[in-house]
Structure formats: C-alpha cells, structure tokens
Design goal:
single chain; about 400 residues; alpha+beta; DNA polymerase, domain 1; hpI Integrase, Chain A; 3 domains; 4-stranded antiparallel beta sheet; 3-stranded antiparallel beta sheet; 11 strands; elongated
C-alpha cells in the first residue's frame, strides 16, 4: 500500500489500497463521543482522487448547527446567500431566491424550526401548494430547494435524515392545466398590418416591431433574439446562428442579502442544443431588411439586430411593451412574447414539418419537449410529411415591403 507523507491537520490523507484503488480521507468533524467524523473518496488514479478531495474541501463548510434552531425561512435565506450565491448561475440563483420569497418566506411552513420539520409537515405544505393551483413545475422547484437545504445539513452531519426526500409530488392529472395560447392566422395578419402601416411624423412607428415577424418565422427564444448581432445573420446562405442569449440578473448586497438593482449580460444559450444554425425563409429576411431600413432612417448604428436608439441591446421588458402596443393598434389581445415561439412550433407542425427537424430548430434537447409543450394543433391538423423551412410562411400575406 502506498501512502503519502503526513500532511498538516485538515488537509486530508491520500493512499493506495492493495487492490490498486486510490483513497482520500479527511476529518470533517467530531462525534459526541470524541471519535472523528471521516469523509472518504475513491478513484482509480491518484490524480482523480486528489481532484475529488480538493473539490470537496473547496465546497465544504463546517456544520451550521445554528440552522437547527432557526426558522425554515430564515435558515433558507442564509443558505441561499452562503451556499448558492456565486456557486450557481445568476439566473438560477434568482429563481431560487424568488421561490423562497414567494412561497416560503410568508408561509406558515416557513415559521417552523428547521430541527422540528417532519415528512408530514413537508407533505402538507406541498399539498397546500397543489390545492392553491400552482403548477407542477413550481411545486417541484419548492421541493428541490427544501431538499437541497436539508441534504446540506445531512452531508455536514447536522441531521441524520432529510425530511423532504420522500415527500410526494402531485400527479399532473390533479393539477390545473396551463393554457398555452398561440396567435391565429387572422391575429398574425393584424399584427403585420399594424407593424407595416403605422406611422408617426412620416416615420414608421415601433422601430423594432418587425422582429415579431422574424420570431414568428424562426421560433427563437426572446433572450436569443435580443442577443442577436448582424454578424449572426448570413444572408448568402439564408441562415441565422444562435450562439448567445441576453439575460437579466438581480444585483444583491451580499452583506445584507438585499436587492439593489438589475444588470443585463450576454451569456451562453439555455442548453448545448440551443447553440444552432437555422434556415431563414423569405419573410424572416424581409423583416430583418425592414429593421435595417428603419435604423438607417433614424441614424441608428448598432451591432445588435434589436437595438435602442443609442445602440445598446433592448431589454425583454421593453420589447414586451412594444408587442403590447402593436397588438393594441392591431385590435387584438397581446398573448406575450413566448406565444410567438409557441405559434411558430404549432404552425410548423401543421405545415408538416417533421418533429425531429422542428426540435432542432427550436433548440430542444429532445422531441418530447417539442411535442408536449410547443405543438398546439388545431382540429384536423396532421403531422405526417416533410416540409422545407423556406416554404414555411406563418403570415399568409406577401412579405414586408
């Protein structure tokens, strides 16, 4: 057996068993009877087991015994800023913080002592959220946050078991189904008319509005569209390269765990499959040409396809407001930006685009996501054939002039 020389206290030890397996051990605490609490790792090489030990040491913190005497709400808030902030994506942290704020902070469950929470308490809390009509996705996020918190206490040996682990999520059939709306062909025609025929002081109104026609013909996510630059557009090959996304994060004062403001950043897309190159049909290209003409008219110079007057990216909040205004002029209800993406998928399916191809266009990891969440077929629609992207015209009128 090979063993390293004695290391300083707290650094751990690494040795090789007779079988050839490498082992790393480190003391992480002391039991009530004085015996050490040891954490062990194994790997086939010394380098691999050393990496495991170093990763654990970087993330490990001594047991937060105080958590056991705190309320669930207070302990979770501290946990988020101590264990999550800076260790996960900003957008992921914002979602977790929102779950805590909206569902745990003001709840009766949040007042329970961490130490006294039982499986029954967790199940009652989950059932309350089900009865209140929350989606399965929201309830899963609540459970995941609570479970991660208690797993941290278990890993630090502050608790023996995780009371959240075996709580049952509601069945989908017991939950209200979310109604996903899409724009009808008549509504799309009205939107297009409002975009092309609205003027103010001899200039076309809603400078960036043609991007909605582009979104209806490409199915891009809002963040992907807002991060698009003109360099991503290849008119020669009629394609657009999707390789980034505009994300908005909250800014926090971590000393006081208080919200300060927001910041926008260009980040990588949602998933690896989100990085893709997709074809552009004539209507999508016409929409881009119209945006360029409007920029020239207003002397706007920007690398971004969707730009403010000063050349900066437009926020999701502002582009959403623009869609609401255009819809009002069109005399229709605004169904939101994401409905443009749902509309693209549904119309593509109705026009016989193969689901496998559509999933790639959408940037989905599998066709299951596409079929389950994005294809909303009208009565009698069938998806059974091939259709080329260039022939997919969502707006059944001539391209933008």
């Amino acid at each position: 057996m090979s063993k390293d020389k004695k290391r300083p206290n707290g650094s751990g030890s690494i040795f090789q068993r007779a079988s050839g397996t490498w082992v790393a051990k480190i003391q992480i605490g002391t039991k009530p009877d004085g015996r050490p609490i040891i954490k062990s790792f194994t790997a086939q090489t010394k380098m691999a087991v050393t990496a495991k030990l170093q990763a654990f040491k970087a993330s490990f913190r001594p047991a937060q015994i105080d958590y056991l005497n705190m309320s669930v709400s207070d302990a979770l808030e501290d946990y988020l800023f101590t264990y999550k902030k800076g260790n996960i994506k900003d957008s992921s942290f914002d979602r977790l913080q929102s779950i805590w704020k909206c569902h745990i902070k003001a709840s009766n469950f949040g007042t329970f002592d961490v130490l006294n929470v039982k499986l029954h308490d967790v199940q009652v809390f989950i059932n309350e959220k089900r009865n209140a009509g929350y989606s399965l996705s929201t309830i899963k996020k609540i459970k995941e946050l609570l479970s991660q918190f208690y797993e941290q206490l278990v890993s630090e040996l502050a608790l023996q078991t995780n009371p959240v682990k075996n709580a049952k999520l509601p069945k989908v059939t017991t939950l209200p189904q979310k109604n996903i709306e899409i724009y009808t062909s008549q509504e799309i025609a009205a939107l297009k008319s409002a975009i092309t025929n609205s003027y103010r002081n001899d200039c076309k109104r809603y400078r960036i509005a043609p991007i909605f026609i582009f979104m209806l013909n490409t199915g891009l996510r809002v963040g992907e569209v807002l991060a698009l630059t003109w360099n991503d557009i290849d008119l020669g090959n009629k394609t657009v390269s999707v390789n980034k996304s505009l994300s908005v994060f909250k800014i926090w004062d971590t000393d006081n765990n208080t919200y300060i403001g927001r910041k926008a950043e260009i980040t990588l897309p949602k998933t690896v499959t989100s990085i893709r190159t997709i074809p552009l049909n004539d209507e999508a290209i016409a929409a881009l040409d119209e945006i360029k003409r409007r920029y020239i008219t207003e002397s706007i110079s920007s690398p971004y396809v969707v730009s403010t007057k000063t050349g900066n990216p437009v926020s999701e909040r502002n582009i959403a407001k623009t869609l609401d205004r255009v819809a009002k002029v069109a005399g229709i209800e605004s169904k939101g930006l994401h409905a443009l993406r749902h509309t693209f998928a549904s119309v593509a399916a109705e026009k016989n685009m193969p689901t496998e191809f559509l999933a790639k266009i959408m940037g989905h990891t599998s066709t299951i996501v596409t079929q389950k969440h994005y294809i909303h077929l009208t009565a009698g629609a069938q998806v059974n054939g091939a259709n080329i992207m260039y022939n997919l015209y969502i707006c059944f009128q001539p391209p933008l002039a």
